[in-house]
Fold this protein.
Amino acid sequence: MSASPPPATRRRIYLMRHGSVTYFDANGQPREPDGAPLNETGRREAMAAGELFARAGVHFDRVIVSGLVRTVETAELVLGEMGAERRLEVWPELVEIKGGQLSKLRDDELRDAFLGSLEGCPDPATRFLGGESMGELLDRVIPAIERLRASTDWETVLLVLHGGVNRAILSHALTGEHRLLGGLQQSPACVSALDVGANPRDWVVRYVNLFASDLLQRHARRTTMEELLDQYLVGRRR
C-alpha cells in the first residue's frame, strides 16, 4: 500500500486595490491620475481593511505597491491600523493600465473606451480609454507575478495595486492563461486572497473583492468605470 502524499504547502498573496480617489472634479474635468491621492472615503476604506487584518492577526513578510500615491497611502494606512512596520517595495511594472487622451475620443467611442475592458473576455488588442491595450497590461503584469512567486523569502505578502492590474492577476490565476476576464469587479480597498504552490499552475483563489467597509455589498450594482464615465460626461456635455 503506497503512502499518502504530503499535504500541499502553499503561500498566501493578499491582493488589495487602493482606496477611493477623486479622478474628476465637480465640473467633470479629469485630474492627473498618477498623482491623485486618496480622498476621505478612500482613507476610511483603507483603514477598515487594516482593522480586518489586525483582528485576524495577519502578518506580512513583504508589502509591495506600484509606487503611485494612492497605493502607497493605502498600504501605509493598512499597516498603521495593524500597528506594523514594514518597508514598502515599489514595483513600477505594476502601475495601473494607462489611458489615452479622453479629449481625442469621439462621443460614440466613449462607452467602449470606458467599459469595453469590463465585458466578457476582451480581445488583447482592446485599449483602455484609447491608451494601453489589455495585452500590453498582461505582458508586464504576469512576468512580475512570476518573479514574485520565484522568490523564496516570504510566506505571506500584501500587494496594494489597482483595479485593472488586479483583474489581470486574478484572471491569470483563474485561467492559467494569458487572458483577461472583464467581469471581476474590484471595489475600493477590497481584498482578495490567492494561494500559490511550487508548480506554476498551482493557484487557489480563496475569495475575491472582500470589501471591509461593506462586507455584503447589498446595494452595489454599478462598477467603478460606470461611475467614472458618468463623472466625465458632466464636463463633456458642457
